Amino acid sequence: MNLKGRNLISPLDLTVQEMEELFGLAERIIAKPQDYSEVCKGMMLATLFYEPSTRTRLSFEAAMLRLGGQVIGFSEPGSSSVSKGESIADTIQTIASYADIAVMRHPKEGAAFVAARRAGIPIINAGDGGHFHPTQTLTDLLTIRLEKKDFAGITIGLCGDLKFGRTVHSLMCAFARYSGVKFVLISPDELRVPEYVLDEINEFEEVRDLRDALPKLDVLYMTRVQRERFFNEEDYIRLKDSYILNASKMKKAKPDLMVLHPLPRVNEISTDVDNDPRAFYFRQTKNGMYVRMALLMALLGKEI
Q1: Is there a contact between 221 and 156 (Cβ–Cβ < 8 Å)?
Q2: Using CA atoms, how far apart are residues 65 and 63, in angstroms rounded to an integer?
Q3: Quick check: 88 and 106 in contact, CB under 8 A?
Q4: Could you say which of 22, 110, 242, 279 has the lowest number of CB atoms within 10 Å?
Q5: What's the rounded Cα separation, in Å, for the pair 65 and 226?
Q6: What is the spatial distance between Cα 44 and Cα 30, in angstroms, rounded to a whole number?
Q7: Residues 6+ apart with CB under 8 A from 270
Q8: 61: alpha, beta or left, given left = phi > 0 and alpha = psi -120 to 50?
Q9: Which strand ranges, in their side-by-side order, compose the sheet holding 258-260?
C-alpha cells in the first residue's frame, strides 16, 4: 500500500485493493493497538470543521492521539478567521504551515477538493455538503467486513434521506465496485437517490415501504432526514417521520441482519432496537476510529 502524500476527497480515490489493505491494517490495529501507540509521534493533525460533528471529529482526534501524534484545529468556523471572511484557500495554506495532514468538513460541495489543490499536505474530506463522506464509507465497509467476512452477494437496504445523505452516496459508489452487491433504495419520491449516484451502481430496486423490504436485506443502513439540507421547514416536517425502525418491524428481518446508521439519529431508529444484537451502529462508531488510524498512518507513510 502506497498512499503516502495522497488526498482522500471521494471514495473513488481509493481502489478496491487499497481499501482492502486499509481494512487489513485496521484489523491489525484492533488486534494489537499497543503496537501502534507511537507510530505518528511528532506528527500533527489539523481538524477543520466548518459544520458540527461529534463522531467524525472526535474519532479523528482520538485516532491521531492513539497513534502518538498531536491535534490542532477548530470545531466551528466562528472560532477562526473564517468568521472574518478568510477564504478556504488562505485558511488551508496557513494550516499547512503547522500540520502534517488535515481533515476538513464543509457545507459546500467541492470545498475539500479546493483545499486539496492549495494545501501541499494530505487532505481528508470529512463531508462536503450533500456530496461525499469517504471515511464514513470506510467505517461502514469495515463494520460489514468484520461481521460478514465477504461482501459478495450482500443485499443492502438504504433507508431515509437518500437525496441529501452524503454517507449514502459515498457508500453506494464504493460498495458498487464489489461484485454481486444488490441495493434496495427505500425512500419517499422527494428523497430519491440522485441520478449521478444511480449511474455508479448496477443492480438496484427502489421501494417506498420499509416493512416490505426488510425480509430480503442482509444489511439495513438507516439515515436521518436532515433538517439542515432542506430549503423550507414545511417539506422537512412533512417527511421527517417517513421511516422509523422499531422492534416490531425488526421481527420481519433476517436473524443475521446488520442495522447500521452513520449517526446522529433523531427518531428514525427507536431505542427499543438498541439492545437487539443486530444493532451495529454503536460498534460502527468504534470501528471508525480504527479505520481512521489506519488511514492516517497510510497517508503519512507510517506503516509498520
Answers
A1: yes
A2: 6
A3: yes
A4: 110
A5: 31
A6: 22
A7: 244, 245, 246, 247
A8: alpha
A9: 204-207, 182-186, 155-159, 219-222, 258-260
The alpha carbon of 202 is separated from its chain's Cα centroid by a whole number of angstroms, namely 22
The rounded distance, in Å, linking the Cα atoms of 40 and 30 is 17
Residue 62 C-alpha cell reads as 482520538
Give me the helices (H) in the chain, please.
Answer: 16-31, 55-66, 88-95, 111-119, 134-148, 166-175, 195-198, 210-213, 233-239, 247-250, 281-299
**How far apart, in whole angstroms, are the C-alpha atoms of residue 219 and residue 200?**
20
Residue 27's alpha-carbon distances to 20, 37, 80, in angstroms, are 11, 15, 36
Is the preceding peptide bond at 264 cis, omega within 30 degrees of 0?
yes
The pTM assigned to this predicted structure is: 0.90
- Determine whether 241 is exposed, middle or buried from the number of CB atoms within 10 Å of its CB (0-12, 13-18, 19+): exposed
Mean pLDDT by 10 residues, the chain (304 residues): 92 94 97 96 95 91 98 78 74 93 92 90 90 92 95 93 88 91 91 90 91 95 76 74 87 97 90 97 96 98 83
